[in-house]
Amino acid sequence: MEKSLKEYLAAEPGTMDCPVRSVLDRIGDKWATLVLLVLDDVDALRFNEVHKAIGGISQKMLTVTLKTLEADGLVSRTMYPQIPPRVEYALTPRGRSLLPHIHGLVEWSKEHMREILASRAAYVA
C-alpha cells in the first residue's frame, strides 16, 4: 500500500523513507536548481561555461553540485580523451523530466515575489 504524504514526512530525517525530503535536499540547495536551468537550453556545456553562466558560485561548489546532480542521475558527465581533456555536462532524461516542475516554481516565484518581499518587510517591522 502506498504511504500517505504525512507518513513520508514523518519518516526519520536522512533516511530514504521520505522521497520528498530526499529530492528537496538535493535540488533545494543554493546552486543545484540554477545548474539544471543553465543546462536546460543546451545539448551540453563545459565546466567553465557552466561556471560563467552562474555568477557567484565558486569552482569548488560547482564541482560539488555537479557531482551531486550526477550521482542522482540528473546530469551526465562526458569526458573526451584529448589534450587538453574536455569534459561536458548535460541533462539526463531524468533531469529533463524535472524541468517542467522547476519552471513552474520559477513562474510562481516571479508572480509572487513582490508580495513575498512586502510580507518579509512587514514581518521585520
Automatic annotation (TrEMBL):
It holds the Pfam family HxlR. One of its GO terms (molecular function) is DNA binding. The keyword Transcription regulation applies. It comes from the Bacteria. SUPFAM superfamilies: Winged helix' DNA-binding domain (SSF46785). Residues 18-117 form the HTH hxlR-type domain. Keywords: DNA-binding, Transcription, Transcription regulation. This is Transcriptional regulator. The keyword Cytoplasm does not apply. PROSITE patterns: HTH_HXLR.
